[in-house]
Amino acid sequence: MTIDGNSRRTDLLGYRLERDLPLVAEGCVVMGFSSVQRARVGRGFADIVLRGRHVEQDKPMVLRGAAETSYYYPPYDYACESSPRLHARLSVTEELIVAWNFEEIAPEVFLEELHTACELVLEELVNRRAKRLSFAELISAADDAGFFCASHDHVMASSDLLSGLKNLRKNVRHRAAEGAGEWLDEHWEEVAICLERLVRHVNWRVAQGQVQG
Asked: Model-level pTM?
């Protein structure tokens, strides 16, 4: 078996296999295997996929039962330990990114989640004051501060991308507008990567403060 393709999407697959395969295997009736053993075999298969994603090995991998997977890398790095509240909240975003790719949630739900995640990270990054800023003001402040670096990976500038997210979310939420699914199909990965870069800026700023302190 060969699994090949975009590295982040392969991680999305591994993320879901790690959760679901033990449950599926446990429910299969196989003579001579207890439910616990069947779950371990399912987890072992997920472990092969996750190890194969990060280990170069020419010889076949042997399927064995596993109590836990050996390798796991999140599809997007939203770790933000300096802000436990934000760190915990972004773990929900990561879960919904995976859910969207397996058609488990509606586009309107995913659109709202991406908007909320970007807003929270921008607040942490450019607005530490008590005064609340609108999403548009947060985007402008981040742009002025140079947090939206130019990238050749994407056609649309990050500020324009998040402005598009803001406008569509407003129309979908308040005017029941259509088009969320089409927009997400084209842009969700760009938003996810933009969010990852903003989190990196948050972590870098905290690290710099600790060094200077």
From this structure: 0.83
